[in-house]
Amino acid sequence: MRFFTIGYGGRPPSEFLDLLRRHGVRTVADVRLRPDRASMGTYTRSRDAQKGIAGLLGSAGIAYEPIVELGNVFLDWADWRGPYRQLLEGAGDLLCARLDSLEAPFCLLCAEKRHADCHRTLIAEHLVARRGWSVEHIE
């Protein structure tokens, strides 16, 4: 299975949607710990599915699935990568289980524009190593 990752940081909604469409993304898996607190309002998870990130994606025919259990609970730590990697080593299969039910191809979403600065890269590495999936980071 092939999947993607993307960060919305600094992207206007039109560019964001264009990138997803060009890659044939069917579902966006939001791996932010607090999708209801996005710094850019368009990308906020709203209670109303017609607004915020769900409404934006829905207008383009792309499904939206928040998967907060994959959020980075160590984000405030100076070196969050080590603890997050340990979390995936111990519970990654359970934390990633809901990804199996998503319409493919799916795309992991977080705020950081560059995947190298984001925990979604560690999730992707886990999926590649444990499941043999392939990933493309949309930048």
From TrEMBL:
<protein>
    <recommendedName>
        <fullName>DUF488 domain-containing protein</fullName>
    </recommendedName>
</protein>
<dbReference type="InterPro" id="IPR007438">
    <property type="entry name" value="DUF488"/>
</dbReference>
<dbReference type="Pfam" id="PF04343">
    <property type="entry name" value="DUF488"/>
</dbReference>
